[in-house]
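Entry 14: structure prediction run for glucomannan 4-beta-mannosyltransferase. Input pasted below.
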Amino acid sequence: MAETTTKVLIPESFQGGTYDIAGQMGLIWELIKAPLIVPLLRICVYISLAMSLMLFFERLYMGIVIILVKLFWKKPEKRYKYEAIQEDLELGSSNFPVVLIQIPMFNEREVYKISIGAACGLSWPSDRLVIQVLDDSTDPTIKQMVELECQRWASKGINIRYQIRETRGGYKAGALKEGLKRSYVKHCEYVAIFDADFRPEPDYLRRAIPFLVHNPDIALVQARWRFVNSDECLLTRMQEMSLDYHFTVEQEVGSATHAFFGFNGTAGVWRIAAINEAGGWKDRTTVEDMDLAVRASLRGWKFLYLGDLQVKSELPSTFNAFRFQQHRWSCGPANLFRKMVMEIVKTKKVTLWKKFYVIYSFFFVRKIIAHMVTFFFYCVVLPLTILVPEVYVPIWGAVYIPSIITILNSVGTPRSIHLLFYWILFENVMSLHRTKATLIGLLETGRANEWVVTEKLGDIVKNKAAEAAKKPAPKFFKRPKFKFGNRLHLLELGFGAFLFVCGCYDYVHGKNNYFVYLFLQTITFLICGFGYVGTIIPSS
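Run finished. Output tokens:
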């Protein structure tokens, strides 16, 4: 029987250096680049350009509308019926509707006194106000502290109730839902919700409630957030820039054109009848506030945003806390979109134009495309085209469009215009987490329903700084103690390394000078990766 042998055909260029792994990999790269890599990367570029244009036209539309609103739209007091509620000499305070204040809490050691004190200081007849502290704390010491604070205010004649649950089922949505079931809530017409770090001004209810009283089709009056710690570090300053655009443009445009926007979960007053008609609070996603708002809007209820009614609050000042918050804020809307898109399509109580606005503009572009295009285009596709010069990215897509979008985004915080370039780099880093969270929400996998309460520090930083100023300067510098491992974020460090390689390649072989952007973006990824973004103090 003839002996059979198998021969492996190896290209000649391999045979001269079988052990030259780098050379072999280079040849494989050349073999697959033209038929596979180049076409795929071109498709990615076309998709990224299409998403960029979608985001550009959305930002341009809102920019035009907000200019028209500011120049020609009537003030809310003139667009809607509005008359301040006054005490009647004969009827007394019975002229005022009964309002419920809900303050959900979870281990809020540093801020519980702030929110309870602000709620108890609201200018509203005490016999027409019910304050409900919904404490889901797991720390018995904190629970006792919150309960004692409630008792202290109750001793002053304030109608304040301290409520706890056996379990945290449904998280915030579960606590709010349980609170509305209490017997003493049945005679309340409206409910104002404040998270534990929010501090409404005394006239908050007197300015918001009349819109609900005199306009029976309005379900929600939303106030704007103002941040007491925006100047604490560069991290809080970047957050202020992003959120100010959301309030100054997105909420204002939605309120003026469609009487619809996403409830921000706090600093808003709801008509309890609207909550009940919409099906009440649901805990199927981590954005129970947006869920309720969309369901109420689909039943024909209107929302009103008051930009000049502002409530002080706190921004996360640690990078870990901010990452968890952004995961929830990005994953939740994508998950809600997955669950509600067909319900929105089938509803018959709203116009076709409003359906299009909610599905395309509110959800698809702002909650999905905005995150993905920032990450995929500027942190993945664009750097890869440097390694594959056969793929061309037009200058209008790489530079002009994102520049215009960035300028439009900066209108919310004029005082931080000098930090605009830093903000771009930081937003690109955060787009990595937002994209990951968005995909988790769309696919409903992994951490889709993860709820981590945002850490709040209250005045602890300010108080420690004041104490340190009073003490004599130490003779020797003491390093702050921290666990370095807790600060390391491998995902950011990995992308920083990838962008650094692309930047070096572009510096040596490139023609577009993208290496300037890539090196700066690398530095930003590394700063975030090593956990130092929350320690940088911004210039005024």
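Notes: The first helix runs from residue 12 to 15. Will compare against the previous run tomorrow.
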